[in-house]
Specification:
Belongs to the adaptor complexes medium subunit family. Pfam families: Adap_comp_sub, Clat_adaptor_s. It comes from Esox lucius. The chain is an alpha+beta fold. The protein folds into two domains: about 150 residues, Beta-Lactamase (2-Layer Sandwich); about 270 residues, Sandwich (Immunoglobulin-like). The strands form five sheets. Strands 8, 9, 11, 13, 16, 18, 19, 21, 23 and 24 form a ten-stranded mixed β-sheet that branches. Strands 2-1-5-4-3 form a five-stranded antiparallel β-sheet, with helices on both faces.
Length: about 425
Amino acid sequence: MSASAIFILDLKGKVLISRNYMGNMDMNEIDHFMPIMLRMEEDADTSPLVTHGSSHFLWIKHRNLYLVAMTKKNANAALVYSFLYKIVEVFKEYFKELEEESIRDNFVTVYELMDEVMDFGFPQTTDSKILQEYITQQGHKLEVGAPRPPATVTNAVSWRSEGIKYRKNEVFMDVIESVNLLVSATGSVLRSEIVGSIKLKVVLSGMPELRLGLNDKVLFEITGREKSKTVELEDVKFHQCVRLSRFENDRTISFIPPDGESELMSYRLNTTVKPLIWIESVIEKFSHSRVEIKVKAKSQFKSRSTANNVAIMVPVPSDADSPKFKTSTGSCKYLPEKGVVQWNIKSFPGGKEYMMRAHFGLPSVESEELEGKRPITVDFEIPYFTVSGIQVRYLKIIEKSGYQALPWVRYITQSGGEWILSSHWNSIAVPLTPV
């Protein structure tokens, strides 16, 4: 990685905290960072990497802080940015929120953390759970004699402490998939994507080894089981605990897990997915008088599954008032600050269809504001269901003491941040008549 120094600056460019790891750079070079940033803002040409002479600044912004790595070498930029985001996570674990005030209030702890997370320009221990074992916010007593590094830091398994004991040994695994869809007003899917993650909550004694088996297409092809139902995972990212060489050789996911909660892996599937909750809508804007909204929602998954906490957000004109609603199920409310009607359905079984009607009055003088035709968005969560068909075939727990442990697996599908369904708009010019 070879980052020579790390700086934390306020929004004016004042250095709050700095650490010179390699001693091969003039620390005053950071004074050139903010003027360069201001010039870029004026030119509307922001770059995540800026240069002054032979000095390179790789930076990220978090709330009211800049975190800047400085180097003269041809560093691996991806690793530098990964490290900067990782130390943001570490600081948030310690201080709840990372901002200028938390840095000023905890500068001793911040310096101690920066000394531990990097050594001579190379990342070291960045697991907040391990760091919290020996860097606390209560301060430290000076030990007499040669300091001893914490045992966990020098272990081959640096993400898990030794000597962990529980009365009841369990593993809870959540397979969570988010569906991102972009659907046109005519009903054609313009873009679809599944983003998944496998999260763990580990309550296990000792140093157990876990082996996870999925219905992975590549694995099934290797073992001659092509006819079985499989999924082809893309962009797979693992926690550092997974033995990558083992996975690359025979697709076995083998690992010694961190204690407590962690994300074991994430993946993505570029596949055509039909909308799980299909929306048909007509928004009729009568000339200068009122707007009427008709929305039909249909669940397109099997009846044995149920979508929970469904929220359908339908945009309305910014000058609408006097809302009236009628629904076949659930409830509606007008959110003027967002300019939407929110239709809430607590439980939406598969194969069902529901209707909602909304009526708004409009001012007698038409606004000259040209409003874009904003999309309808849908939020939901479906437990015990994955849209990709991914399955946990087995989860084996091996520990030298031979204790019995219970594995629990749960599947959840939810709407992603970009589930978007466009609506049909009709503008109708009619005489002003009461509804």
